[in-house]
Amino acid sequence: MRELMLAFLVGAACLSGGCQVSHGGRSLLASKFLTATFGAPASESEPGAPAEPLLEAEAPTPLLTVMSPRKVIYTGRFNVAVGDVDSSIQAVKAMADNLGGYMLRMTVNAIAVRIPAAKFDSAVAELAKLGTVIDKDITARDVTDQHLDLDMRLRNAKALQKKLIALLEKSQAVRDTLEIEKELQRVSTEIERIEGQINKLSHDVAYSTLTVTFTLTRNAPAETRVKLPFRWLGSLGLDQLLAF
What we know:
The protein folds into 2 domains: 1-57, no CATH class; 67-221 and 238-244, no CATH class. It is α+β, with helices and mostly antiparallel strands. Strands 4-5-7-3-6 form a 5-stranded mixed beta sheet. Strands 1-2 form a two-stranded antiparallel sheet. It has helices at 2-15, 28-38, 85-98, 120-128, 144-170, 174-206, 238-242, and strands at 22-23, 26-27, 72-82, 102-106, 110-116, 132-142, 207-216.
């Protein structure tokens, strides 16, 4: 078993041509690794004895995975002039609830919500009805490649985990068992970490983030205020009325 562990750890390096002593076109350690993992070749086995591989051969992990549609994270930031900040914040919270989203955080003049990505455009249209949009910034971040990379790393880690479990089941020496268990724990931790990253990325794709900051209309920039058609209407206080 000790030799099997050594061959398992250095086999990849030997197969790449790093070992100098050759045997039948490949290094002795590489031959040992292949024999231990996949069974002895027919020419090296005893006549009539079938090879019994230690580990079952697995289908190769595809280098490319078709992912459609592409995974995009949408984020929107808005500054809206309104007559009543408190009621506008509550209106955004209610909108998020009605669309199947939820509130992230709230301050005295702002609110951040998560909205299902499929309803992002509807939410933006609802925000425009609350008042005058002073400023807005909408971004779309494509994370398809990042998701694909994490998916491939997860597949490879799970394949290694499966091989280590197979080695552990056949281990007899205490020292070998402890080494395999240590490596298995490391791989299992890595799998959990990658799965957490994938879950977070998937959630960010599924739920867009909208952050809305409200400004009282009377405090908004002059160019965003309602312009009266006649100056004398201002003497009647109509401009102050419209500010609310």
